[in-house]
Write a structure and sequence with these properties.
Two copies of one chain form a homodimer. With 396 residues, the first copy, chain A, is of the alpha/beta class. Chain A has a single domain, classed as Peroxisomal Thiolase, Chain A, domain 1 (3-Layer(aba) Sandwich). Helix content of chain A is 39%, strand content 18%.
Chain lengths: 396, 396
Amino acid sequence: MRDVAIVGSSQTKFGKLPKSNVELFAEAAIDAINKSGLSQKDIEALFLGTVFSDFEEGQVNMAGFGGAEIGLGNIPATRFEGACASATVAVRDAAMWVASGQFDIVLAGGTERAFTMGTPFATRTFAMGGDAKYEAVTGNTFPGAFAMAARLYAVNYDIPLDKLMEMLASVTIKNHKYGALNPLGQFYGKMGDLTVEKVLSGPRIAEPLGLYDCCPFSDGGSAVVITTAEIARELTDTPVYIVGTGQGSAGALFRQKDFTKPKSRVASARMALKMAGLSPSDIDVIELHDCFTPAEAIALEAMGFYDWGTAAKASDDGDTDIDGTYPTNISGGLIGKGHPVGATGAAQVHAICEQLRGEMPQGMQVDGPEIGMTDTLGGDFGTIAHIVLSLSKRRK
Amino acid sequence: MRDVAIVGSSQTKFGKLPKSNVELFAEAAIDAINKSGLSQKDIEALFLGTVFSDFEEGQVNMAGFGGAEIGLGNIPATRFEGACASATVAVRDAAMWVASGQFDIVLAGGTERAFTMGTPFATRTFAMGGDAKYEAVTGNTFPGAFAMAARLYAVNYDIPLDKLMEMLASVTIKNHKYGALNPLGQFYGKMGDLTVEKVLSGPRIAEPLGLYDCCPFSDGGSAVVITTAEIARELTDTPVYIVGTGQGSAGALFRQKDFTKPKSRVASARMALKMAGLSPSDIDVIELHDCFTPAEAIALEAMGFYDWGTAAKASDDGDTDIDGTYPTNISGGLIGKGHPVGATGAAQVHAICEQLRGEMPQGMQVDGPEIGMTDTLGGDFGTIAHIVLSLSKRRK
């Protein structure tokens, strides 16, 4: 297998955008290609994540249309859908096709118009990412699932629920702090000064989760250009190598014994770290799937950064902030930057690339990270994928 | 890259089925695994095609649920969607992951409940496989697109339209002849004796296409077990090697100069044949995307079996029948066997496996084929994929 690197990455502004899914992807893709020093004719295949393009604008089979929009010709173009993990699965697959020697230069990314759907319709369609036969029919939505996760976390680790939610408020306070600094974030210039009091007294969504515990619905696009290490070194002095990828799956929640310890996420994170030859302690910067505040704690534990039941407190102690042991979601994450579901995974990869290259906006740059990791969750653990990125080809 | 082979394949009955998408896939998957001599614990990853599971039953993110249904554990499970080519793209991707050395044994397949949607709703949702911005909004559906293709074919090659439709009637007469013999086909025991007169006087769908020029909406599932050549030889005396795969894409019809000569299909077929080191004349048996009668002629030409403008006549002359030069859709094809869109591609692969192994039902076995090829079309040429299958690892 060949070494693989990212030579260009981009995302659109996240928020409410007057553009089609194809146009959102095209905007990010053209910027990523331009940054790479390559041109459209160099791209040999396209890997595109999107989740609800059919409900959003009556479009399936979108990958080819995305490619045609930017002039890619008749190359292989594949759409991936694993709910909110769609773009991460696309990036992982793209990396494999390059590593295997089948393609030298490919484009991966994602797009979504979830804000434009409106909250009630988006809530209903998003719930389709859980099991339709046993979950959605009971009225379960993802705020509901993560409300249950918060309660289970409190019980499992013997933490009073109100104390847990107070600790978890640190997650949204941190992520909104950086989201407010991110010019491409949905809440740029807003909500950078949330307080525990404000978070805890926010409008109720699904007890114990309030509005500020939840990420928003967003429109947005994202893209990365992936090539061989050899070509990357000709194009840039700072290629970001994809040194590990992982993926996992799970069935309906009733098949998952304890979804505060999601087996699909544990399996996927271990697969990615094993491929990279790294341990959790080697990771300098993290972008993970903070769809709700308890989700960030659960992800940090399942990925191996903290022992089970300790990440909420670690977050409250500032250990996941920009100068902590594991700087997490310094882009703003899903909560502070936005969550255009089909685009989120490649935007996470873009954020890690910017961190590793020292290109983050003012106030958001972690001090000299060399290795980063993304985590993306589709549904209630049905699809999980991880990407490990590094400034050097192999740690060992 | 390692050599790759299929060691088990299956499809459900096609038609109107009282089962969920996950159950349809599970039925085919368990049969394919059982036939392979392997068990669920041997499967390392799942590649699943499905198109409209959200409209059909409020389910996205289905791959993990499909895997959990048959007990696959937390392995990587990816959903592919390229309209009607979804399962072929899944099989192609699965083959690559095995060829690359990342997995030794994987499961690929597809599932769909298009019959259960009902014709009006299925017609509307299927149209989402064309470009939503420029085509579906004009009222274009796929019968409409292929009606235009028939007219363009007649004009391009100076064939009177009524004469062309008379020649193309041979496509549906042939495919229904074999569909009626196929116990797993939607029209088993029915419509085996269509006549040109009956075809031409059928209810009008989109002039010049009548009802008998069109494939049906179908429910169904399909699956194949893919492994290395080395493991395959331990399991069976008749592995079917995947010796070539190809994929292509295209934008909206207005970007395609002449969609009777679809560039995405030409590029994809050439890619697959080049990888196999084969020419069209090496292919002994074909399963291709006969969604409408003109589609079969266009596919035969774009894949290189006949010169442009000559395949309708070749079909009328019997050259694509079971004893002709290029036996095509002897399973019944989409028209005679059925077309559960997300499942179709892997079912085509299954049909070629049965042909190469000499396992087709009575009256449907081509005489001693050694190499076969599938062709699957998603939308109006937006996604195309091809698989070349052989009883020997490499022709040359």
